[in-house]
Design brief:
heterodimer, A: alpha+beta, three-stranded mixed sheet, B: alpha/beta, CBS-domain, 13 helices
Amino acid sequence: MIARDVMQTNFHTLEPHLTIGEAVNRFKNASQAEKKMVFGMMVVDGQDQLVGILSMFDILLFVQPKHAHIWSEMDDMDPGYLFDELLDRVKEVQVADIMTTEVVTIAPDNHLISIADIMIKQHIRRLPVTEGREVIGIVYVSDVFYHLLNKFTS
Amino acid sequence: MPVVTNKSVLTGIIVKEAMRRNVVSLPLTTSLNTSINYLIKNKINALLVTDEFQRPAGAVSKTDIMGAYYADLPLDTWVGDIMVSPLIYCYPDDGLETALDSMLKNGIHRLFVRGSNSEAIVGILAYNDVVGILYRYCHACDRSIAKARQTSPDQIKRLTVKEVMTPRISAFQESDLLVGIIERLYELQFGAVLVKDEQKKPVGVVSKTDLILAYKHGHPVTSTAESIMNAPVESCDEKSLLNDAIRQMLLKDIQRLFVHANTKDDISGVLSLTDAAQIRSGSCRACTSSRLMTA
């Protein structure tokens, strides 16, 4: 059983020059289209070459105030409006500015056991499948999980 | 004979209590392009650079990257080629006031915190971390503004922004070029400049962060201030309480607040986190007398 057998070939991508606001909308639309939560998306350039990956965590880390622990001590104010103003200031920032560029990828003929190994050791939940730099699919941890453990479910 | 020493809120607090433990480090061979991503995503001003054995080798700050932009270095230049070394350290058990003195003396904005027994870096201490702890102490204090507001009138003389701010600013026209702004930021060691329109009305701000983003987005240094500035200008009244201004900076994650006098168009100074940290008090001068810290 290799990556090519289990990978999803229908996936959503982001372009490097989208703003963070546009990326948030893409996450929402992708989740609705897939009828499941999309937590991370690959970023590809005009030639379908993989240039990075952007997850919800990357966006949250970026918008989260550095001193968030102080917010929880505020009993005399509602910080909600401050957060809104904070979001207004990030509009110049693009997907390419905060995406992870060191992406671990797999080849289509990688075996599921070795894919599971990468996912466990590096805490990765999705691995792009590439030929050269071109993305041809993506393997999610759930794909690996159910294919490796189907003995229990069949 | 009794020895009189000046006390501030920070007296008795050690570096360990204020430092940030999550130090972002990158290998020498990381490109400037990638390092900008780490600075932006983590909203930090500097990165630790490590050698091939993961030992600390130097630091790269937004200022250094701005210098690379000015010098027209390609974005795939390694951080190792522009990093500054050796690092300036402090230790977790150092007093916060000693650490602040060292930052002031060396003209730097952060200290790396070295573990007592090894070369490992266990934390980083920057001005905003110091201001964060100041704010929390003042907020929890019996004399805090929040408590005083419940029992008006407030008996304590509070510090205002005007007493602490830097009473000069550097302003540029919208049509001025980034290259001139970079030179001025270097010269004055400021983090941002104000941009005014032809009627001298403040219309935006260009900070080091905006400049390194412009570098990454491929704007030449001959672009105009208007093309990358951040608008509108965030400012506070010079009569505002220091405490409220600090809170605004911390919660909104901004490193400086322009200060206006009578009207918003009349910018009279700038309050930076450095100013706020060096005054060593978040709201009043009560701690500067001889009050014992019991927190």
